[in-house]
Amino acid sequence: MSLKQSHRTLSRRVGYNKLPQILPITRRSYAQAAAVQDTKPPVALFGLDGTYASALYTAAIKTSSLESTSKSLAALAEVFKKDTKLSVILSAPTLSPGDKSQIVQELQRHMGSLDKGETVKNFLKTLSDNNRLGILQDVCDKFGILMGAARGEIDLTVTSAGKLDGKTLQRLETAVAKSEYSQGKKLKVVPKINPDIMGGLVVEIGDRTIDLSVSSKIAKMNKLLTDTL
Q1: Environment class of residue 190 by beta-carbon count within 10 Å: exposed (0-12), middle (13-18) or buried (19+)?
Q2: Span between the terminal Cα atoms of the chain, in Å
Q3: Is 208 helix (H, G, I), strand (E, B) or coil?
Q4: Which pLDDT tens digit goes with each residue over 44-88?
Q5: Alpha-carbon torsion angle 34, 56, 117, 76, nearest 10
Q6: Three-state SS annotation for 36-75
Q7: β-bridge pairing 200-205 and 153-160
């Protein structure tokens, strides 16, 4: 059964607003692995998704499958981008074991042969067994943070009102790379779209933000007028 078919079947009996409550983690094989010093993740992450991402990172190192695990999660992240309802479906508290098994199999199909050593396959089973499939999308994001840190990368998030072409993004990357903002690190460009900024750009490098959006300029102008009147 495809993910779309799963949607049609499950959405009829699953309310999208019914999210599962956080339950104690009963399987700790991944969490215990994260404590090993020689396989310690490059940065500390918090939250349940951060805990699982860190544990997966450690497990991948111990099984010499870090790159294949990274590629597998990147493939899953693309699935979430294309299917905006998937995360809500995975969070449904009424998913039966059969439902979860079908969804996991479909996610494995999207990974194809990328999952060397079946590290991610086993991880998906762990999430399924512990009713944690709903955090998978966040785990993919957090794992990306770990990989970026391991590679010495720093995120360059570029938010625009509409999609930017590759040439524009490359010019921005080159300009920031030559500035002090890059901190001498390799940049990882992360384009985002937010119509609310109305135009212009919002550029984030690490913990720094450069707001060149139209909405920001309007807000400043309104404040100036308010203070003057």
Answers
A1: middle
A2: 63
A3: strand
A4: 889 999 999 999 999 999 999 999 999 999 999 999 988 888 989
A5: -170
A6: CHHHCCCCCCCHHHHHHHHHHHHHHHHCCCHHHHHHHHHH
A7: antiparallel
